[in-house]
Amino acid sequence: MNVLFFQVTFILYLCGTIAYLIYLLFTHERVAWIGKYLLGLGFVFHCLTFVLRYIEAGHTPVINLHESLSFFAWMVIGFFLLLRYYYKVEVLGAFVSPLALLLLIWAAALPKEILPLPPVLRSWWLPIHVTFAFLGDAIFALAFCAGVIYLIQERLIKSKRVGAFSGRLPSLEVLDEINYRALTIGFPLLTIGIVTGAVWAEYAWGSYWSWDPKETWSLITWLLYAALLHQRLTVGWRGKKAAIMAIVGFGAVLFTFLGVNLLMEGLHTYSEWSR
Amino acid sequence: MREVILVGLNHRTAPVEIRERISFPEEDLDRYLKTLQDLPGLTEGFILSTCNRVEICAATRDPEKGIEEIKGFLAQQHHLPLSEFEDTLYVLQGEKLVRHIFRVASSLDSMVVGEPQILGQIKGAYRTAHTTRTTGTLLNKLLHKAFSVAKRVRTETSIGDRAVSVSFVAVELAKRIFAHLEGREVLIIGAGEMCELAAQHLVRGGVKRVLVTNRTWERAMELAERFHGEAIPFSELPHVLVRPDIVISSTGSPDCIVKREEVATIMRRRKNSPLFFIDIAVPRDIDPQINTIDNVYLYDIDDLQEVAEANIKNRQHEAHRAEAIVAAEVEKFCRWYQSLEAVPTIVSLQEKMEVIREKELAKTLSALPKVSDKERRAMEVLSEAIVKKILHGPITLLKRTSRNSEGESYVDVVKKLFRLDEE
């Protein structure tokens, strides 16, 4: 049942993404409106997918790669829909929805059966730690998209190609503000994610920090964002530099999330994870 | 059947000498509207009067008489002999009228195609006509449709999106850099008409404060006063760059007055808060190299002109798309209008057939005195069935109300075929 809902979600996101891309290329307001509702509906189905999977599995479904990718995509879309209430940045959807769709395409290609929970993960810390970590990551994903758009818009303005395409993108200031907001919200969430992980590690593995690759890379990511936040607040790193940093930071996020598990062996790699 | 007629003149048909004499000031519009509606030939009336056009639209039962009355009304109200301006007037009816109204509302008939004011002007004129109760079903339907067509054109094409004058381009660009203009500060270096115009647009866009600096202190004071702004001594220019978000420069200076190093230094003090330079001067006032500094944007007069020209081209392109939308909507509207005409035609067609049937049946029955009740009923049913079968084709055709290949309305054809207008 949850797989069926997953497939419905997938199709809705796919259609939503297509609508947003059409909007980006041809400015049809109505298409963006359709895209918004498709994504919203997809998000509802995505929520149901998790509820059903949670009931069927008996534990928070974030154990294997399929579940993690889907969870990540869910949060990215959720934050985007939330963001739309505060900023009129419809066009951001044309960047966020393909990202979420890519995550789901990958998730769809992976085996979807529910795996038994390894005993070491049997704890309330699982949903807490994973949720905070992904909340931070999802917000950084939005900052990444805003950063990409910022670089495009900045290039267009500097090179004086301010045609219709540039007119469809948000103003530089709005994009920079999204970057800043994402940083100030995402950074504490990432911090909580790391701290809860350390506390749980003490319970589960017997030590707060064991330089497992995931821990190391989380720390690197954390330091990157800490540096950006610091520079931003003290010397006014904004605009292009902040946008580039948001993109680099998200690269680190992705590597911590995916690269570490796929390429390296460590405590966070459970045998069934990627198969 | 009532019809809509339109008599008007605009910037293409009438010179300004005529346009300035024939106009209906807004404050007296309701009085004019009442006078218009009181004309015996008209049942509904609407007046649009802007500096570029006057359009009088009315519903009438007798188009020819109505048109003469409107022309007379124009002459009488403005104390002008009709002969002096009659050849500047255009008279429209039917499909051409619908197309004209839709095009005017969509700003396709404007002097500057795509300018946004006209829709507001028509809506204002309609509101007055509506409150004075001079519009009825026909004009209400027509004008409401015109508003929705204009809205469709606006959302589905980018005809009005982009600025076509240099000073507006500057404002548009500022909005790509800043989320909004409210609360911003703008610095004017030097003076000049273009400079002032751009500043005016920015102030209208919400800019909070205008700073003015000029080599001549009196000139700076004068301009600052006009904008309720602040005059700054010219020698303080490099330091004052900490404050504004937008700088407009147009001095007669032969060389650069804002240099790259100065701006680079100031950006550190501004904590990289974005700075937008608009250089309207020739020769240029601002070192072109500053465009390479992060968070600093520079547009000179050529850049602005290029953007404006590209936007004009884009507007022309978008105008074609808009015309297609208008054409589709005109067709839809005309079809609706014809369907109004079809209903009474169907009714009179049925009535006429019924009269014939009854007459002929009575004739036959009187010639056959020995007919039983049963046979009589059978003959009635037979005649009814024949009439129904014959009328089936024409009536379905009328209900679909499309036009035949010669563009003639089927309503007219049916009227002629069955001689519905005689009697």
Q: How are the elements arranged and paired?
A:
The complex is a heterodimer of chains A (275) and B (423).
Chain A: H1 2-26, H2 29-57, H3 65-86, H4 93-109, H5 125-158, H6 164-168, H7 172-204, H8 213-235, H9 240-263
Helix pairs in contact in A: 1-2, 1-4, 2-3, 3-4, 3-5, 5-7, 5-9, 7-8, 8-9
Chain B: E1 3-10, H1 16-19, H2 29-38, E2 42-49, E3 53-60, H3 63-77, H4 82-85, E4 90-93, H5 94-105, H6 117-131, H7 137-156, H8 166-177, E5 185-190, H9 193-204, E6 209-214, H10 217-226, E7 230-233, H11 237-240, E8 246-250, H12 260-269, E9 275-279, E10 296-300, H13 301-367, H14 373-400, H15 410-417
Parallel strand pairs in B: 5-6, 5-8, 6-7, 8-9, 9-10
Antiparallel strand pairs in B: 1-3, 1-4, 2-3
Helix pairs in contact in B: 5-7, 5-13, 6-7, 7-13, 8-9, 8-13, 13-14
What does this molecule look like?
The complex is a heterodimer of chains A (275) and B (423). Chain A folds into two domains: 1-117; 124-275, no CATH class. Chain A is built from nine helices and no strands. The model of chain A has no long low-confidence stretch (mean pLDDT 88). In chain A, 77% of the residues lie in helices and 0% in strands. By secondary structure, chain B is an alpha/beta fold. Chain B has three domains: 3-161, 2-Layer Sandwich (Beta Polymerase, domain 2), CATH 3.30.460.30; 166-308, 3-Layer(aba) Sandwich (Rossmann fold); 340-399 and 408-417, no CATH class. Chain B has helices at residues 16-19, 29-38, 63-77, 82-85, 94-105, 117-131, 137-156, 166-177, 193-204, 217-226, 237-240, 260-269, 301-367, 373-400, 410-417, and strands at residues 3-10, 42-49, 53-60, 90-93, 185-190, 209-214, 230-233, 246-250, 275-279, 296-300. In chain B, strands 7-6-5-8-9-10 form a six-stranded parallel β-sheet. Chain B has a four-stranded antiparallel β-sheet with strand order 2-3-1-4, sandwiched between helices. The chains are: A mainly alpha (275), B alpha/beta (423). The A-B interface holds A 27-30, 153, 157-158, 160, 162-164, 166-167, 169-174, 177, 235-241 and B 155-156, 158, 161-162, 172-173, 175-179, 268, 270-274, 291, 294-295, 297, 299, 303, 306-307, 310, 314.
